[in-house]
């Protein structure tokens, strides 16, 4: 239990991150997965099909976090956000990686780049920086856990909007809406100065923090320890809504925690009404091929 978060099973003890490394809708969606306990984390590459069954498979087996230059020194990864305009560029994609520094007790971030082909190397683009000094939209966020792209609000007016889910010091789950400006499409990507300084990816707090229990009653009611939210391949902006997998540790009183998931949908219109598509299911039963061993 993390002493600063008495209501949580801290992500430093158990964590799951999933972020896309290949967004080609005509073939399959490759997903980079990092998971594990603090200091003993692993990473693997899985694929999720765009077929009706969303067939999953392991593409690259487990390797330690530290084997990737972009993950070295990260003891408690919390979440990733895609860098706007830097996906599918020169055979790779960039993400902001947020993590908790157990030594300094600081919330930090770095920018990393993942190559889309084997061996899917993760390399650093920027050094670690304090979130409090570079992210105005996250200045009051204590413990971020995951994000969700706001349906219908990607690339609008040069910005991408995301729902940011985070816990407070009492273990209550909140969400904010933030936006990040898109990076200009330079023909020469050799100069990383502006991106490194976060200068042309200005972040804005669109909606201040609200309790998830009050605003996501239809889809996230009864959610356990939230771990990750990931888009369902082939179900983005489909039929007026986008669907997402929601992974959480379900630990009711008197029972052991287990990794569970549900599917939800969020409308693409201005109201963004949320609905529950499928109820909770054990990951061990439904993702036995790609997420085996992830708890």
What's the short story on this structure?
The chain is mostly beta strands and 295 residues long.
Output the keywords.
mainly beta; globular; disordered N terminus; 5-stranded antiparallel β-sheet; 4-stranded antiparallel β-sheet; 4 helices; 17 strands; 295 residues
Rg, please? Answer: 18 Å
What global shape is seen? Answer: globular
> Count of helical segments?
4
Secondary-structure-based class equals mainly beta
Give the % helix: under 10%
Low-pLDDT residue spans: 1-12, 185-198
Beta-strand share of residues: over 45%
The largest sheet, given as strand count, sense and whether it forms a barrel, is:
5 strands, antiparallel
Q: Write the element-wise H/E pattern from the N-terminal end onward.
A: EEEEEEEEEHEEEHEHEEEEH
| SS elements, strand count | 17
Average pLDDT taken over every residue? 84
Termini distance?
16 Å
How does this structure look, described?
By secondary structure, the chain is mostly beta strands. It contains four helices and 17 strands. The strands form four sheets. Strands 5, 6, 7, 8 and 9 form a five-stranded antiparallel beta sheet that branches.
